[in-house]
Design brief:
The protein is mainly β. It contains nine helices and 37 strands.
Length: about 675
C-alpha cells in the first residue's frame, strides 16, 4: 500500500514544563485501509518518542519509535502499517528518555479510524477548504458536527508569503494550534496541498520562487502528516484512497515554469514530468468509484493579471482531460480554490461525460468580487466568506452517487449537487457522421438542438424570425429578413474550452446579397462573448458574405480568434484575432439557390468547403486553439443586428472533431431534411 500511518510528534521541553506556544497536535494525517499518519509537537527539546496503538478493548496493537530533532523543527514522524481496515485505534505517546512520561493519553479524544478497502459499500464524507488564515472561525466546529471522515486544506492554509524557514514554520504552527482545527485533528485526518501564499509568494511559481521553495517545502513537510510528499525531495503532491473516493492532491506550484511541458516541449510545464506521469498512472490504476483532482489553483482563467491558473497551461490541462476521455476513466471531478469566490461549473461532455468543476473559497471573510468572472460553463457562484465544501461518496446499492454541498457555519447549505456515477461514466457520443456532434439545429419542428447537449443550446428567435416549411422538402428552414434585423441566438457554448479542432456545416439560400460597391456585410453565423449579443471580441467562429471588387463575385469570408502562446516565461496566453480569410465565389452560385458550406479548424488552418468541394485552405499566422466564446448568433453578426443575413438557413451542425473531406462531401449531398 502506498499509504502508511505517519504519526508526527514533537516533544520539546524548556526547563520542566511545556510552553503552550510550542505544542502542535497530536494531528492525524493521511490514512489508508492499513495505515495512517499523525503529528505532535509538545516542545522544543530533542528527544525520543514512542507511539503506541490500542484496539477497542484497549489491548496494545503495535508501537513505533521516532526522534524529534531541530532538523524537523522538533516534529517526530511516525509510520505505522499493518493495520486492519475500517478499524478504530486509540493512541498514546510517551517519552523514552530519562523521564518516560506519557505525553498523550490513549482515550476517545485521541483516536482514528482506518479507511475501508471496499469499493462497493459505505459512505465517505470529506470536507475541503481554502484561504484560511490564523484567525477565529466556526468552520472547524461545523466540520466536526458533520462528522466528516477527512479535512482537506486546499492552499493558502495558512498565509505565509515568505521564504524564511523560521517564519514559515511559525505560521504553520500557529495555524495548526487554532483550537477548532487542533481538536479536529486529534481524531480526523487533516491533509492537503498548498497554493501561492503557503508556497511562499503571491502568484508564485517554480521559477520566480526558485530560491525560496525548498525552504517553504521543508516547513510544509514538517507540519503535514502525509504518506508521501511529491517525488520525495521536490513538490508536495500526493493522494489518499478512502475506498469509495480517491483524492489526488496536485501541486501546480513547485515545478511550474521549470522545464518543458511533457505534452508540448515548446511550452513550460505546470505539473512537471514526474508529477504528470504519477497522475496519469494513478488515474489509470484507480479502483475508486469517484476520483477528485484537487488543487489550490483553479482550472480556468482567473481573468486578472495573475498567471497561476490552468488557463496559463491550457495545453497541459486539456491533455489531462483528453487522457481521461481516451482512457474512459469514470467518476472524475475537479476541485480548486484560491480566488475568494465559490463556484460550480459544468463542462458539457468534456471527458465523455459532463465534467463538474468545484471552486471552494474563501474560508475567511475576505472575498474578491472581481474574480467572480464569466465562464461559459459557469452554473453558480457565491461571493461570501466562511465557505467550505463537502463531498459525500455513497456507494451503497446499485446507484453510487457523489453529493457536493457548498456550506457555511450554522448548518447553511448554499448549493447541493448530486452526481450519479452513471452520469459520470463515458457514453458513446454518436456513430458515423453523428460522432462528436456537439450542436445541431435542423429547424424541422422549431429551434431545438438535436445533439446530446439538448435544450442547453436551443436557439431563440429575435425580430420575428420563424420557420418556413416551404423551402426544405418535408422539413423546414429558418427564414431571416435583413430589413427586419432578424436572427437566432444560442446563449451557451457547445465546444470544449479552448477547442483545438472542430467543424461547422450548414445550408443557406440567399434572397439578396451585399450590393456591389457597398460596404455591406451579411453574416451566416458568428460566436458571441458571453452568450448574449455584444460587440465584444469573441468571434472564433465567424462566417460572412461581403461585396468583392469584381461585380460578379461575392467574398465568402472567415475570421477567427485564437490563443496566442505566452510571449515570455511566467506570462499568460493572449487572444489574437486572425483574418479576414477571403474566398471569391460567383454571385450567381449563391443567389436564390441552396448552397452547402462547411469549414474546419485545426489550430493551424481554416479549411473552407462549398457544395462539398474543397474551396480554400487558409493558414493561420499564429497557431493556437480556440479562444473563449459564450454562444453563437445564427443569421447575424455578434451584435445581433446590423449585418444580418437575408434568406433561409438550414441544418446548422457543429462537431468536436475534424470532419474528413469525404464526410463533408456526403453532407453536401444529403437531402436538406
Amino acid at each position: 500500500m502506498w499509504m502508511r500511518l505517519c504519526l508526527v510528534f514533537a516533544v520539546c521541553f524548556s526547563g520542566s514544563f511545556v510552553k503552550g506556544n510550542d505544542v502542535v497536535g497530536p494531528l492525524v494525517g493521511s490514512i489508508s485501509s492499513t495505515s495512517a499518519c499523525l503529528l505532535y509537537r509538545p516542545s522544543v527539546t530533542a528527544q525520543n518518542l514512542r507511539l503506541q496503538l490500542f484496539d477497542a478493548q484497549q489491548n496494545p496493537v503495535t508501537s513505533v519509535d521516532a526522534k524529534c530533532s531541530a532538523e524537523s523543527d522538533f516534529v517526530a514522524h511516525f509510520v505505522v502499517s499493518g493495520l486492519q481496515p475500517e478499524t478504530t485505534y486509540t493512541y498514546q505517546v510517551q517519552r523514552l528518555d530519562d523521564s518516560p512520561d506519557i505525553l498523550v493519553k490513549a482515550d476517545p479524544t485521541h483516536q482514528f479510524t482506518t479507511a475501508t478497502r471496499e469499493r462497493d459499500s459505505g459512505v465517505v464524507v470529506v470536507s475541503f477548504v481554502s484561504c484560511v488564515d490564523v484567525e477565529p472561525t466556526e468552520i472547524w466546529d461545523e466540520m466536526e458536527s458533520l462528522q466528516v471522515d477527512a479535512v482537506c486544506l486546499m492552499g493558502d492554509t495558512p498565509y505565509i508569503d515568505s521564504s524564511d524557514l523560521d517564519v514559515a514554520r511559525k505560521k504553520h504552527r500557529s495555524f495548526l494550534q487554532m483550537p477548532g482545527l487542533a481538536r479536529l485533528g486529534k481524531t480526523i485526518p487533516v491533509v492537503g496541498v498548498w497554493d501561492d501564499h503557503d508556497f511562499g509568494k503571491n502568484n508564485g511559481n517554480g521559477l520566480n520562487f526558485l530560491e525560496g521553495k525548498s525552504r517553504t517545502r521543508q516547513a510544509f513537510v514538517n507540519y503535514r502528516a502525509h504518506a508521501s510528499y511529491g517525488n520525495g525531495h521536490e513538490g508536495v503532491y500526493h493522494k489518499m484512497d478512502l475506498g469509495a473516493m480517491e483524492i489526488f492532491f496536485l501541486d501546480p506550484r513547485y515545478f511550474s515554469q521549470t522545464e518543458p511541458s511533457p505534452v508540448d516541449a515548446s511550452q513550460p510545464t505546470c505539473f512537471g514530468r514526474q508529477q504528470w506521469e504519477w497522475l496519469l498512472r494513478g488515474l489509470r490504476e484507480s479502483k475508486a468509484k469517484f476520483k477528485v483532482l484537487a488543487m489550490g489553483a483553479i482550472w480556468q482563467d482567473k481573468k486578472n493579471s495573475e498567471t497561476d491558473d490552468m488557463f496559463t497551461y491550457w495545453y497541459e490541462r486539456d491533455a489531462l482531460l483528453d487522457f481521461i476521455k481516451r482512457e474512459q476513466i469514470s467518476g472524475v471531478t475537479l476541485l480548486g480554490g484560491d480566488i475568494h469566490v465559490a463556484r460550480h461549473l459544468k463542462h458539457p461532455g468534456r471527458v465523455g461525460y459532463d465534467l463538474h468543476d468545484f471552486v471552494i473559497s474563501p474560508g475567511h471573510e475576505r472575498t474578491i468580487t472581481g474574480l467572480d468572472v464569466y465562464h461559459p460553463s459557469l452554473l453558480w457562484s457565491l461571493v461570501e466568506g466562511r465557505q467550505f465544501l463537502t463531498l459525500t461518496a455513497d456507494v451503497r446499492g446499485d446507484k453510487p452517487r457523489l453529493t457536493a454541498e457548498f456550506r457555511q457555519p450554522e448548518g447553511r447549505v448554499n448549493r447541493r449537487v448530486v452526481l450519479n456515477l452513471d452520469d459520470l461514466t463515458p457514453k458513446p457520443q454518436g456513430e458515423g457522421i453523428e460522432r462528436g456532434l456537439r450542436a445541431g439545429w435542423d429547424f424541422d419542428d422549431g429551434l431545438m438542438n438535436r445533439s446530446f447537449l439538448g435544450a442547453r443550446i436551443d436557439a431563440v428567435a429575435f425580430g420575428g424570425a420563424s420557420i418556413d416549411k416551404t423551402q426544405a422538402g418535408q422539413g423546414g428552414a429558418v427564414r431571416l429578413f435583413r430589413d427586419k434585423q432578424q436572427y437566432l441566438n444560442v446563449g451557451r457554448s457547445f465546444l470544449d474550452e479552448n477547442s483545438p479542432a472542430h467543424s461547422v456545416s450548414m445550408r443557406f439560400r440567399s434572397a439578396t446579397l451585399p450590393k456591389h460597391g457597398s460596404d455591406e456585410r451579411s453574416f451566416l453565423l458568428e460566436t458571441t462573448a458571453q452568450g448574449a449579443t455584444s460587440n465584444q471580441q469573441a468571434w472564433h467562429l465567424s462566417l460572412g458574405l461581403r461585396a468583392a471588387a469584381d461585380p460578379t463575385q461575392i467574398n465568402v469570408q472567415l475570421f477567427t480568434v485564437t490563443l496566442q502562446p505566452a510571449a515570455q516565461p511566467g506570462a499568460a496566453p493572449t487572444q489574437i484575432s486572425q483574418g479576414p480569410f477571403d474566398f471569391l465565389v460567383d454571385r450567381k452560385l449563391l443567389l436564390d439557390q441552396w448552397t452547402h458550406v462547411a469549414f474546419t479548424f485545426d489550430s493551424g488552418s481554416l479549411r473552407l468547403f462549398i457544395n462539398g468541394e474543397a474551396a480554400a485552405n487558409h493558414q493561420l499566422d499564429i497557431r493556437g486553439p480556440a479562444a473563449e466564446f459564450g454562444g453563437i448568433v445564427i443569421g447575424g453578426h455578434r451584435t445581433g443586428t446590423g449585418r444580418n443575413f437575408d434568406g433561409w438557413i438550414d441544418d446548422v451542425s457543429i462537431w468536436q472533431r475534424l470532419l474528413s473531406p469525404v464526410e463533408i462531401r456526403q453532407l453536401s449531398r444529403l437531402p436538406r431534411n
